[in-house]
Specification:
Blueprint lengths: L16 H13 L19 H4 L1 E6 L2 E5 L2 H11 L2 H12 L5 H11 L11 H13 L13
Antiparallel strand pairs: 1-2
Helix pairs in contact: 3-4, 3-5
Length: 146
């Protein structure tokens, strides 16, 4: 039943593309108003993360896993802190992720990035391509192994 207060107003549904676009537009106008304690951008987790999580050990009835390295690497590339970038390079060098893994995972979550207004989809895509192409994201000419 419709209340008197809401009569005649369109229903606002969180997470709809219309509402998310409006939020992103507002976010863009207020970039200079960053607040301390704001959460770091984390991309959505794509399909297959459970299957890609590597088993560590079983203790009693509890299984322990490394959280999906592909999702970890994407999150590190999204944040782009020096330590995160070094970690992502090391994951690639050790064979924990491949360039193809990262491309496929990004393609799977790209449309959903609209739901994460703190992530700039174009900048994230460009950062990923620079990483996958071997260019160091810190501006040096050293190539990424792998």
């Amino acid at each position: 039943m419709e209340s008197e207060h809401h009569r005649g107003r369109p229903e606002a549904r969180p997470g709809t593309p219309r509402n998310l676009r409006g939020y992103r537009e507002t976010e863009g106008r207020t970039r200079g108003e960053r607040r301390a304690g704001r959460a770091e951008p984390v991309p959505p987790v794509g399909p297959g993360w459970r299957e890609r999580s590597r088993f560590i050990a079983r203790h009693g009835e509890v299984d322990f896993f490394h959280y999906d390295f592909v999702s970890q690497a994407l999150a590190k590339l999204a944040r782009a802190h020096d330590r995160d970038l070094a970690d992502a390079r090391e994951m690639l060098a050790r064979g924990l992720v491949t360039r193809e893994d990262l491309r496929e995972a990004f393609a799977a979550v790209r449309a959903g990035l609209l739901r994460f207004p703190s992530l700039d989809e174009r900048a994230f895509a460009a950062r990923l391509e620079a990483f996958l192409g071997g260019a160091r994201m810190d501006g040096s000419d050293e190539r990424i192994p792998g």
